[in-house]
Amino acid sequence: GRLPAPTFLRRSKAMSSVDRSRVLSSLRPSFNFQQRQQNQFVRRGAQARTVFSVYAISPVRVKSILLMRLVEGFRARKYGQNTSDHDKISVMLTVPLEFGIVMHYEFSYVASPFYNVLVGSAHVKIELSGDPDFIQSVKNDFINHQVGQVRDQGTISQRISAQLCKFMRWIRKEDAFDSYLTPREWNLQLQPGSNFLRRLGAMSSVQRHRHFDVDSSIEVVCVGGDPFSNQESLLSEFIQEENGENELFEAVSKFSTQTIIDRECYIKQLRSSRRDLVMYCIVNVKRSSEAARLFSVTLEFFGCQDERERIAIVQDLKDKLLSCAFIVLLPRRVGRYLHMLKQRKAGSVERSQSFLHRAHWTLTKDDDLIAVICQRRRSSIGNFMLLDSSTNHALLGKFVSSKALVQGRERSSLNLVLYHIRATSMRDHVFVDIYMETERGYVNPFNFSPRFPTKPMFYEFFERVKRRDEECSLALRSRRRLLSVFGTTNVTASDTHEAYTGEDQEEDISRLLVYASSTTKYLRFFKAGAGAANDALATLTTESILYSAFSGITNIAELKIDPEQSVGTCKEGTWFLIRHDNHTLSFLHLALLEEALDVRSGDGQVFRQLTFHTVYSADLYQTKDDFDDGDEEEDGEEEHAEHLGVTEFAERIERNHAKNYASALYLALRSNADDSAVVEQFDSDDFDFATSSCLDLVKVTDVYVSSTSSLEGDNEDTTATGLSLSALVLSMFEPVPVGRSIDSSGSYYFYYKGNETNTDEQLVDCHPSGQDRIHDLTVPYAGTMSIVGEDSPHENLSPLKNDDDVMSFSSEEETDDGQLALMGDLARSTSADTSQVDSSMWSVDPPVLVRFLLDGREASTKELAETRSSSSLSVFITVFRNCPADTPGRAVPGNSYRLPKIHSAVALRMANELKSFVAEQQLERLRQVGSQISEIDLRSALYQLSLLESKRVASSQLSLEFFVPGKDDLVSASAPTGNEKSLDNFFTLLCSEIGKQKTIKLKTITEGSGDFLVVSEGNSPLPFWCFIQLQKGLGRILINVHHPGGFDRATEVAARTTAAIKQVCRRVNQILLLESLHRTRNASYMLIKEDDDAKTAGNVRKNTDDENGEDSHRHGDRHPHHRRRQLPGEFACPVKFQRSFFLFHRCSRKTAVMALESKVLHNFAVSNRRGLFVYKDADSHVFYMRLSSFANADGSEGILLLVHGAEMPGPSITTELCRLLERMLFSISLEALSSVLTKNPFYPLLPVDIGFVREFESKWIAITESDESILTAPRENIRTYEFPDGVDPMLVLMYFRQNICGSGFFHHLNEADVEPSDSDSDIPNGGQDTSGDDDNEKAGIVLPFDKSHFSLFYNNSPSQVDPHYQPVSTLTKRGDEYRKKSGTGIALVDIELLDKDGSRVEAIRTGSGQEKNVHPDRINYSLELLRMKRIGEGASAVPTLAFCNHRVCIRIVNTLLDAKILQSWIELSLNQALVGFRIESVLIASTSSSSASPIHPS
User: What is the dihedral of CA 1407, 1409, 1413, 1415, to 10 degrees?
Assistant: First the structure.
């Protein structure tokens, strides 16, 4: 039980002998001395031990800790109770190491009172004894944790010390981990993602071995699914793809309590007693590295010591695994055998192990060989288990029961058999190896003597499996060679050295027939006298079989085997190869000769056999058990007697055979003229079978054959009508010879004898104009309808859905049931949607057979010729009857049919011939009715027009294209738009505009239908028939004209009508473009060119609607973002209105245009065109506008407004918008002038500037006269004030000018044409001498009053103060309030001095000296003397104080300011000047007196 020496001491190979001797000498003394030291150490006992670690662990299972120490090599030196307590025990364990070092492990245990005696807590102490110096160095390293530093470097003693420290720490760590693995209670330990589960999942293999007991390991195999199954087979949806892995992990998960690592590790909580800690086991699932389907399941127990309980838990897991459908428990482990096979070289004939028998052979390589062998060996042969597989190999295994005599008693045993098949890429071979455990008594199982009673079991197994594998390989080789005719399989080089001839195909068919199951069908053929009908039927049958190869449903090929050569048990005939899927093949045999089967049919009919020989790839391996004594098949063998594809294909051939039968009859009839095998007559049963099994009669037309030749009513009977009718029928058809009607003139069926090669040309010949017919209008009293074929030039009745090979009568438009009910039997029988034709169906044209009904009775050629009275003639044509199998995936009405091209051509020609004459006479009669013709007669005329030959009708069509905003392009009206509402709006607008146009006079046939008729003036007969029809479903307009003057006259009328309709369509698209422009603010390139900006808008277009007609037809570069060739600006609208505006010279043209666009028109701006604006007036008419500037020869400038649209603009543009623009121009000009004066208030204004300001108010009122608030606002532009008595008016006005000009808003007005006065003239002295006496000084001087010195202007934007008048600002708080309330703009202030009579004062005396009655010691002024009196204010009749004889008139020339506020401001300044004058007078008086006295105002 002692462990080997530690690895750090076993370094004999790494250390040299010198190093080893040095270590030994350093670690231990001589032997005697060492032995003596050890003896002394033993005697001293614990005194020489050094403590390294002391720790406690709780809870702990004492048995687990002690067993772990014993496994590590510790042995008990001392144990027992160290106290009198029974629940305490102490154990001393030691392990001697080399060089005299001993490790001591002291374990003091105390049992828990709550659990059993084996559960409790422990105190552990780890000590070392030995050389004190070395022990001390080890302790230093242990304390300093220097293990990592000396692991790879340092001395040998240091390395040994590091290993000892590591070992002691590991012991302590594992003790703590064992306690951690033993929780007292589960609580949240088993919650997903808990720390406990994560720690269990991170355990190492060493920890699992030390802490857990491995009880059992189970091996299982997942046997579900088939990795070689073909996913393209018909039963692929039912193939089980689950191999059993999910089932395995699900079963383990159900067995376990919680998952530690998904699909790898699980934990199961075990039941524990109340006095024990928790117990559990860990379940590990691991996939084998040698076999992908082999898994090992291992159970590791913790705390569970009861063997019976462990066995029960393992059995429970086995039961759950046994209940799984795709899981097999192996009776014993096979992993070691698989490991032996992995070590073996491929292709070697030597034995891998002596106890395994082995045999091998080689097969021909095939892609399906491994799959076939594996499928059969897993299912019906041997029940092998698939252990591993890939595309190139498969490993299978099973246990075989064998019996042997052991010591005279028969015992049975299970022997392992492994079957390994593999393919290599280097060779065209497949290698097979078989291994089996050694059978008792046979050293070499292949060398046996006949004297033995039985053959060795392995030899029998080898012979049987090899034979079956080789037969399967040859069968698959034949199958692969047959599949090579499709060109879809890989053929090996050995198979392609020669051409694949018919003899080779015959050999391969013969080999595979023995594996095939057969199904026979009987196809009916014609009796004698049918001419070449049987040969034609055989050809059609072959073509119908091969047609499936082209339809893409089934792969079919005709083999090269000689039809006159019999193959196996099959007689002469044609062979076909059918590939249903990757696993199923059928060999189809069509007999060469007919056979009469009276017993089957009872009427002497003849048939040919059609036999299906079907073989499945899995059938190519015999279904015998490998270990059965006989060759009898198992009871559970699966037979592939009939494949689903075979049944479907056989039913399709039987359905097609009836059509082929009828077509062969028709081909034999048409070959009478150029074939030696002339049809004598058909058997009546054969003809009835051909017409009744698959043919239906469809009515072509109904005509009323009249016996009269004029409209006036000639009642004379004549046979000309019948003879003409009979001749017409015989010119196209011949009677069918049937056995019961030898006389062909008495046959009621006729076949078409015309040319069928140029079907398209025949359809065009019926309507050589190449135009489309008029679409189907409801004709209440004309229940007839003509038939048209594919690519037909007219659609007089119904727009048809075309197909490449067949023709449907269904309309492209949504036609209601009521309308179809009025179109006769043919309309009802062809109303179904047959556009989706099943491409997998065999398509053969039905025979062109017709029948005639005369007044409801069948008519032969003779009966048609004898027609004398007026009769109703109905024409019917044969078509194939539809059945649900013909159109899979959708419901097909029983009365819906499809017409091929030849049927359409024949029916159309026949209908036109019968109806053309009647239609033309009816049209002429209705034309005489004139413009008062009723709607019913109009519809009848339109229908009759559709029956005429195209050379009498001039037709033209106009494809409709309308603008779609989302695509910014013209879209065809026939294409789906994704928004049908916009399409309906387009059609509604188009109909409305067609009705409004004045070029041609039209009459609406039905309100809202879009159909119009050109009418004449008054009640005179119609000059011609001209129908304009809007086909919404086809997205076009049809114009059909029938003129009595002939086709040329009709062509002229059609051309004029087409031109008028084109102009209407152009106008409609212009309206749509304008509406889109208004709605999206995004201009289309078709409406406005991208480079057509504001600078080119000055070129004014003429105000005509057709000015852009030529531009729309000119060639140019198309827009790069659109697929259609639409010229940029092709739908540009003409100028409907223009207006020019005067521009003030202070405002630049560019600034004015930008201001108008940004301040007035910005809400109407177009996002992708600069300088373009869109507007919608009150009448919902949309216009787009541009602004441009111009300059006249005289230097004046202006702004031009151009309005484009489809209609004339209303007052909202011509009046309101123009006034708004003009007002904005005035505001812009005013701002420009204000800006000039703000920058330089001394700027001399030109007369034009003065005139602009003086005329501004009158013009502004003129353009805003609709604004009642402006008209009713009071205007206070003129005010007159009277000076009080005793003041000098001139000085007061000077004070006023000085004061108000200091505000920064009022300035002196400088005019450019007025010479500025000198600065001295502001205070004139009149030229008188001032050096005179005092009387002259008191008299003053007389000065002329020049109002230009007092002319001011007001600008709301402040400017610098004129230092000539006032060096600092005099703006008061009251003045600032007036400034804020005054508004924006400029005003001129004219000041005039008047006398008391109101006359202007030309000169005034000023400077007369001190004011009278001024007493410096006392001043007494009333308030009336301190303010100006406004003339017009309410005042008493007798003033209390006298006023002087002068007045001042303040006249304001206003723009946009508030004149009342300005007048208040001026009045305030006048009063301030007056007070200033009074103060100055007092101050002058005070300076002249000897003493000053205070002022006491009263």
Answer: 130
